[in-house]
Amino acid sequence: xxxxxxxxxxxxxxxxxxxxxxxxxxxxxxxxxxxxxxxxxxxxxxxxxxxxxxxxxxxxxxxxxxxxxxxxxxxxxxxxxxxxxxxxxxxxxxxxxxxxxxxxxxxxxxxxxxxxxxxxxxxxxxxxxxxxxxxxxxxxxxxxxxxxxxxxxxxxxxxxxxxxxxxxxxxxxxxxxxxxxxxxxxxxxxxx
Length: 192
Known about the structure:
This protein is mainly α and 192 residues long. It has helices at 2-9, 14-19, 24-40, 45-56, 68-78, 99-113, 119-129, 138-158, 168-181.
């Protein structure tokens, strides 16, 4: 456990992470520690997601065949994004303890870096674009959509085979409507 934390804390975590990956349970743990590392230091999210890509495609990976490790990382991430969200008080606060917003950051990073893409991830974006006053927390839904779009908007709007297809103009129109309706309170720069 301590070695995994040290690896994610390193400037270049890839060499240390490769030493920790001889088994499937280690890959499961790797993804869990990645989530924890981003939760503790969200500003490092981009570099840690990039490190996962490099680990997954490394010719030095201790896995059976080339890109097998990347496929296993993809599968682990796909099993986690937007699956374990609970409606508790932490989801209503804006900050590092908000699990909805953290998973939006992690999901956006996965989409941007090509780590994984699932219908649940695209569904979360669509849910925010179509949030209404009747939604459980329309402001949080729109905010998590914005986080994912800001990380990788072009790729998201064209999405994976049939899961999420929206032209950028339609996405902007929906976000402007949310701004006009006052769905997101406070100083907002959605749609200019």
